[in-house]
Structures are given as structure tokens and as C-alpha cells.
Amino acid sequence: MELEKPDLYRLSEDGRTLVLRGGRCASCKELSFPLTRYGCPKCGAEPDQVSEEMMDGRAQLLTFLTIHTKLIPGMTPPVVVGEAEIAPGMIEEIMLDGTEERYSDGMMLQAVPVEITKGEATMIACRFAPAEG
Amino acid sequence: MVTLKEARPVYVIGVGMHKYQFVSDTLYIDMGLTAVRAALKDAGIAFPEVESAYIGCTGIGMAAGRIMFNHLGSTGLACTQVENASASGSSAFQMAVHEVALGRRDVSIAVGVDKYGDQVRAVSKEAVNRLSDTAAIPLVKYAIMAEYLSKEKGLTGEDLALVASKNHTNASKNPFAQFQKPRSVEQVLAANTVAGTTTSLMCCPRGEGAAAAIVCSEEAIRRLGITAEPIRVTASALQSEKPQQGREIPSVTLAQEVTEMVYQEAGITAADLDCVELHDAFAIEEILYTETFGLAPKGEGQHFLRAGGSAIGGQCCVNSSGGLIGQGHPLGPTGIGQIHEIVNQLRGRNGERQQPDAKIGMAHMIGLGSIAIAHILQKEV
Q1: Is residue B3 part of a domain?
Q2: Could you tell me if residue B2 is inside a domain?
Q3: Which of the residues B69, B185, B235, B338 has the least number of beta carbons within 10 Å of its own beta carbon?
Q4: What is the pLDDT of residues B135-170, one digit of tens each?
Q5: What positions does the domain Thiolase C-terminal occupy (chain B) (predicted)?
Q6: Nearest-CA residue of chain A relative to B138?
């Protein structure tokens, strides 16, 4: 099945989790996410200086809430979103799987594949869920 | 760097507005001309005296200002359209101020005019996905911050509602405001929940409108025999955000940086401010910015609010116009609408929204991206 945002993540080897596609800059040595075509967002180095570095998809949940209103086309509220640290010092807004009762601030999360329907197509999206172990 | 204090003095001599309103069939030219004519009348000058114009707009299309000015007489004035998202009007004002300060022109007008356009954002053409579908929506970012602060600092939904209630009530006394009804804390809390504890009445509306401000040099004031009370612009700064450090939203960190720059440029501190118009697209922002501006200690913005520090008649009235939440946020005009409010405050002609003995005011806007911009205006005594 097709990934919704293949530029951001890939299925892990066992297919149960997702790994995130980061970039490591050879010039400044910094990790960035996501990997883009434009080069290093930390130091401005050319794209050929940045190589793909897979991130394990684990994250620490910082805060979360439920969106109750359709804010963008294709959104079906309620939707749970939050901010999580996906690598040391790297805070990203993420989408959480299920309802907010499953979550608490500070808990460890794992990026997991979740089937969604977009128009006629079914695809695999990235959602974060409580990490096992 | 040359500051506005060191450069040729620049004064606002006239302001005007067209009411902010919900999307309608009103032509943008009708709105823009209303604001421009009101500003000309306020300044007591004729349009041919204006040498240059900066037009802030986001949703009308190319050459909006040039087409509009055709209907005032083609005087040959220099005409530049400015797009800087929500800060388009503020940026237009800054360019007019700098041009006069540099001595390149004696009289310049900043006009903000907008219709609700297609709202296309460059971020949608970046070809970079984000993990969250709402990552580029400021409302979600601020709602998450409100959630965090409710756990960390004791901020409550009632505090957010109090901001909105204050600003809606100020707007109800402002004939140019989009919302005209006073709202109680209970009414704000009972409105539709958008995200977390944020309700629809805690968010600015979409709309349209126009605002204009004419700036000039001392020489022009003498030459044109201007009798309207001039208000001096003593500082102007704009910066864009840096990567997020810790939990603070970059636009909030940025707001602090910009206000520190304008305080230094104007030679004032937060304690000198009598009135502030700030970017309250969402109620949480007003609480955060009163802290970053130094009006309240860090983490105590809600206490400043609850104690009436930001009310008209308080330590420093915040958003006496109703702010973006109450007066409205039509994008292009918003920053110039703030100048309109502050000029009226400093001239002591703001009616029942008058801050007693107001002498120094600040206008602050955030533009998507983010950029922050601030201006200090002072009554000369």
C-alpha cells in the first residue's frame, strides 16, 4: 500500500513501525528533519552535503490536544495532535492515533503505520502511538 | 545603524479607516478610498501633496494600489505594493516612515486594504511535507501552547476568555470594529470549541476593510501648514524567527527581540508604555506578549490581565481597539488600523476607549512565517 508522505517516513523492516527520514549535514554535522531537496536548514549547505539518516520514530510527547473543528480540507474531527521531541532538541507537531485518553505528557511514543482513506485511495499515514516497552 | 531618533523626525499627521467587516460585495477600491480620504481630511492636506504610497494587501492581486489611486487623480506618486502576510500593513507603514526619515520624500501614505482572497500561502508550494497536517496552522500551535501553559503555569480557560471578553467589549465601542457586541467570559467559553480550550470567540475573524496613515517630515508640516497634532514615530523594527529553543513558540521569542529593539531605539522601557495594540489573532497570544513585552513578569501574564493591567484605564491598555479578535484582522489593513488606534489614543480623542493621559504607544504585528514588527509612537510634549 502507498505511503501518504513517503518523503517523511518509511516502513521499518518488520512493518510494524515507521522510521523517519532525517538528514545529516557533512558540513555542520547537524541532524535535521525532514530531509528536503534544498540542503541543510541549519547551516545552508548545498543538498549534496546532506545525506539521509533514518531516525527510529521514537518520540517524547510534550503536550497534546483535540481539534474539534475542520481546519483544513479532508480533516475529519476530532483529531488529536501534539508536540513531541523526535530527537534531542527537535520538537515537531505530530498526529496521534486514537483519542486523547490514551496519552499523557512525557510519555514515549512510536511512529506507527495507520491506514487512512483519501478520496478513493487507501494509504498508510504516520501516526504516533504509545511506545511498547 | 541609524535610528529613527537620529534620522530626520517622522510624524503621523493623518489616519483614516473603512470599517472592518465580514466578506461582502463592497469593492476594495471603495474601502481603500474611504480610508485614504479620511486620512487626508484628518491631516488637512490634498492628495497631490502625497509623494509616495505603500499599499499593504494580500488577497486582491497585482497593482491594487495603482488601480485604486487612479480614482484620486494620477499625480505620478511613487506607488509600491507590500505583501508580508498579516504584517503587510505594518510593513507598508515602516517603508513609508523610513522613506521620510531618509529624506527621500516629505509626505508618504501607508494604506492597508484587503478582501478575503484565495489565502494561498507559499508554504503550500514549498514541496516539504510535515508530520502533522495542521503544522502550518498558527491556531493549532497557539492552542497547544495554551494547553502547555495550563499545566505549567496555571493558565485557565477563563483567562483566555477574559482576553476575548475584554477585546470584544472594547470593539463594541469602536465604530470601525468588525464585532460590535460586548461578550462576557461565560459567552466566550460557551462558543464552539475549536481546539483544546480555545473557542471560536477567542480567535480573530476573517474579513475585509481598509486603513491609512500619512507620515511626513517637520519641513512638510511647516510648508503645508498642517495643524493636526503630529505624532512622532520614534522606533521601527522587523525581524524573522530563529529555530525554536525549548518550549517557547519562535514567534513569541521573536516578539521579545523586536520589542527590545524598539525600546532601545526609542529610549524607553515597557514601564513607559501607555497603550499597546498587539497581535492577538488568538487570545493566548495577548497573555504571552504582555510577558515578552515586559508589561508583566514572565509566567504572570494572566495575573496582569486579571488585575486589570491591560484594561482601558489600567497600567497599559492593550488592544483598546478590540484587537484582532474584536476589531478584526483583514490582513492588509490590520497593522495600519493599529496605528490609527494609537494615534487617536495619543491625541486624546479616543472617546470612551481613551486611555487617560496616553503619551507613548506601541503597535506590534506578527506575519506568517514568522516575522515580527513593532513601532513606537510618541506624543511630543
Answers
A1: no
A2: no
A3: B185
A4: 999 999 999 999 999 988 889 999 999 999 999 999
A5: 244-377
A6: A71
